[in-house]
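Researcher: Can you fold this with magnesium ion in place?
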Amino acid sequence: MPRLFKKKLERKKGLWRRVVDLALTDVRVAAGGFDTKALEMLEERLLAADFGVPATLRLTDRAEQAVRRGTVRGSAGLVQSLKEEIAEILAPTAESGLNSAESGPTVYLMVGVNGVGKTTSVAKVAHHLIQDGHTVMVAAADTYRAGAVAQLEMWADRIGADFLRGQQGGDPAAVAFDALEAAEARGIDVVLIDTAGRLHTHRGLMAELTKIDRVVRRRIEGAPHETLIVLDATVGQNAVRQVEAFSKSVQLSGIVLAKMDSSARGGIVVALQQEYGIPVKLVGTGEGLEDLESFDATSFIEAVFGP
Ligand SMILES: Nc1nc2c(ncn2[C@@H]2O[C@H](COP(=O)(O)OP(=O)(O)O)[C@@H](O)[C@H]2O)c(=O)[nH]1
Ligand SMILES: [Mg+2]
């Protein structure tokens, strides 16, 4: 399948660096004489950096075994063991880019709770695709809040994307359907569907999301080519629970981790992959159109632990 977004976007060099401050400063020091206390400290630091319990236990177990076998000596060895294990966890994230259609419009569905950065991320992704020479339509499948529709329309105007809205109070699934019809008729390459923010605990809204997904599947074979959940990197383990809840309604293919510029807890990337097997594909690094990066495991690990 052809892929979009293959060209790596990278802008903020220091993005992941603060993970180290939280996670590993003490560990580096402690690793000289690695003992139970140092192990506890490592565990604490990884949890504080949002690695989550399963990944943290996996990493500390591995470190402990390596120390016991005598294959790790000093902090450099410990860091090496962590790097290898994290690389293993993140291995499935290695394929860069987003799936796209062989022919006809490519469809991306963007989901997530309110305020996480969905609409902004839709605009950023659309902007980059347009810069790459694709034609893009953004559809506001949010028929509840007029403000949300206006916000997306403003972005669409700015970046030169086609824009489609539904009737106020209408059926969001109908908006998705109309968008696909219009995109086919106009020969648009990529359709981005921005959905209304919903609390993952709200059953009616989650059912509505399933309906949007079903309509898209029926209308275009192979669509949606990506269902991306947008997460706010600053909310920590709560983001992990959002993935769990949305997974029950739609088949998530990837994560857009927004607001990473405001978070020091990049371990969330490892937690999400370890616990749900869903890769972080894009990272939001600010409020502007250019503030988007492709996620790359090798750069992440190097930024966290040094080369
Ligand atoms: N610092 C920062 N702010 C962001 C980022 N993405 C979105 N925002 C801000 O988060 C707020 C909510 O974004 P919005 O796209 O409206 O969220 P939505 O409700 O999920 O659609 C806005 O003020 C955005 O400017 C990001 O990557 N970094
Ligand atoms: Mg929105």
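Model: Folded with magnesium ion in place. The radius of gyration is 21 Å.
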